[in-house]
Amino acid sequence: MSSIKKDLILFNELVEALLNEEEKNPVAERIEANELYNSIDLSLNQSPMIDDAFKTLLEEVLVSTPKTATKLFFNQLFGGRQSKAVLGDLLAVLLNNSMYTYKVAGPQVGIEQEIIRQSCNLVGYGSNSNGTFPTGGSMSNYMALIMGRDAKDPECRANGMSKPLIVYTSKESHYSNAKNATFAGIGKNNIRYISADAKGRMIAEDLEAQIKVDIQNGGIPTYVNATAGTTVLGAFDPIDKIADISEKYNMWLHVDGAYCGSVIFSEKYKHLIKGVERSNSFSYNAHKMLGTPLTCSIILVNDKKHLYDSFSNDADYLYQTDGDDFNLGKTSFQCGRRNDALKFWTLWKSIGTKGLEKIVDQQFDLATIALDYIRNNSDYKLYSFDDSISICFNYKNIDPTALCTALYEEQITVVGFGSFDNETFIRLVTINANNKKVDILNFFKVLEAFVEKTPNLTKVAEMSV
Ligand SMILES: *Cc1c(COP(=O)(O)O)cnc(C)c1O
After folding, report:
1. Of 257, 332, 343, which Cα lies nearest the Cα of 294?
2. Residues 201 and 62 in one domain
3. Are residues 212 and 333 in the same domain?
4. What are phi and psi of 391, to 5 degrees?
5. Is residue 58 a part of any domain in this protein?
6. 287, 295, 413, 429: which has the highest count of C-beta atoms within 10 A?
7. Domain end among 286, 307, 341
8. At 382, is the secondary structure helix, strand, or coil?
9. What is the C-alpha separation between 241 and 244, in angstroms, rounded?
10. Residue 419 included in any domain
11. Mean pLDDT of all residues in the chain?
12. Does some domain include residue 88?
């Protein structure tokens, strides 16, 4: 038997063990970080490992790796497992194409382009639109910023930065905006953080006021980032109002939908990004709301000219056949590029656009269940708002950082905390669409039972209820 066939048999055995383990212990056996190298043999050695020991070691690694697909994982802006997407990703690994040329990727090029075409339609972009699959949401934001920079100052591609370009984003936006401004040569000090209202949404009036100040000081307003689903509260910036301003001052408008941009699939929730078709670029992570394996991030541009202007370079050793429309390397940041499209395509193809809509709506349904539970129970205080799948709360005045850490260390459930307006709280993310009502209620039951039997949890000073 060929070695790949033998290893796939081993793979199936390991998968079986992992799935059983997930059923039995939804939270992984935790290894203290400073015990890691003593408790599990991660060393690489001169001599090979014999097959049986190799298998046993792999099982050990699987058991102690944090489990992100189970019903007690609420820590991140991803979770759960869409099996048809897993299937697609496994096939992508076996095929091992690189997405830069038609010669090497063949029909995979069409698979990627079809996802981009359909996504552009859902956003409402016109016939000149296109896009690509960057390595993640941070990279999507980076590519958007580069296109915005080059659109304002085309010279800078050849000569470097010479103008005082200014970029805008809300103080609640993702931290990649700050990093990207440094990478792009714009500089961190040339980002303006616009304040958010009480529900975490950018205040458009403050954006315009800030732009006027910058113009007066000789700055050149260049780019504005609006967020569809902020990282902590899951808030949606008012795109229409921001688009009015970006059009007036001739700035690039990017909508960062890494977290919740997948509402484009939902009749019920797409109103949250009303006006998105007026943006210059839009990105979303299918590995967040749509549940594909990491990473699967898509950036779309209303006018593909900007993608080519900023990212294409001639390379005779690479582009030897077929046209630009089939050689996707001409519009990407990378050279060799993983096939992130196939897993999304197998999911989409197998459940249809209607199925993706159900995945999105389910998360909001689960959020409503959590909100109702919190609102009907006076031991809880709520910090988040309707139309968000980030449920932010505190329980019985307990310090949320201490509680989250204890829940993790005792392997009870995995959930994180966040802050807004000087308040810190637990953030329950209802992004795993495989969960049901009973799983959300079970989370609260598990949390309450843990607090009951753990008397020494610190309380925060005086919380006004
Ligand atoms: C997750 C997230 C990002 C970053 O995406 P990565 O794929 O993790 O790089 C950017 N913006 C927002 C709003 C996010 O939630």
Report:
1. 343
2. no
3. yes
4. -100, 115
5. yes
6. 429
7. 341
8. strand
9. 5
10. no
11. 95
12. no
Mark whether 10 and 107 lie in a shared domain.
no
Could you tell me what percent of the chain has a pLDDT over 90?
A: 92
Q: What is the DSSP string of 386-436?
A: SS-SEEEEEETTB-HHHHHHHHHHTTS-B-EEEEETTEEEEEEE---TT--
Going by their DSSP bridges, the two strands 220-227 and 191-194 should be labelled as: unpaired
Task: Count CB neighbours of 147 within 10 A.
Answer: 24
For the chain, the domain total comes to 2
| 444 Cα distance to chain centroid | 25
Q: pLDDT band at 461, cuts 50/70/90?
A: low
Top pLDDT among 317 and 373 is at 373
- 56 & 135 share domain: no
CATH number reported for the structural domain that contains residue 162 in this entry? 3.40.640.10
- Measured by CA distance, the residue closest to atom 5 of ligand 1 is 137
Q: Using the 3D structure, point to which of 341, 374, 406 is the last residue of a domain.
A: 341
Whether 214 and 330 map to the same domain: the answer is yes
* 390 Cβ closer than 6 Å to some ligand 1 atom: no
pLDDT at position 458: 82
Mutate to test the pocket of ligand 1, among 179, 231, 273, 294 (most ligand atoms within 8 A of CB): 231
**Shared-domain flag, residues 184 and 265:** yes
Domain check: are 24 and 108 in the same one?
no
Percent of the chain with pLDDT over 70: 99
Where residue 94 falls among pLDDT bands split at 50, 70, 90?
A: very high
Q: Which amino acid is at 126?
A: G
| pLDDT one-digit tens code per residue, 35-93 | 999 999 999 999 999 989 999 999 999 999 999 999 999 999 999 999 999 999 999 99
Decide whether any atom of ligand 1 lies within 6 Å of the 71 Cβ. Answer: no
Atom of ligand 1 nearest to the CA of 136: 7
pLDDT digits (tens, 9 = 90+) for 154-169: 999 999 999 999 999 9
266 plus 134 within the same structural domain: yes
Supply the residue whose CA is at minimum distance from atom 2 of ligand 1.
258
Domain residue limits at 121:
98-341
427 and 229 Cβ atoms separated by less than 8 Å: no
pLDDT digits (tens, 9 = 90+) for 384-425: 999 999 999 999 999 999 999 999 999 999 999 999 999 999
Q: Is residue 63 part of a domain?
A: yes
**CA 173 to centroid of ligand 1, rounded, Å:** 9
SS3 21: helix
Say if pTM beats, i.e. exceeds, 0.85. yes
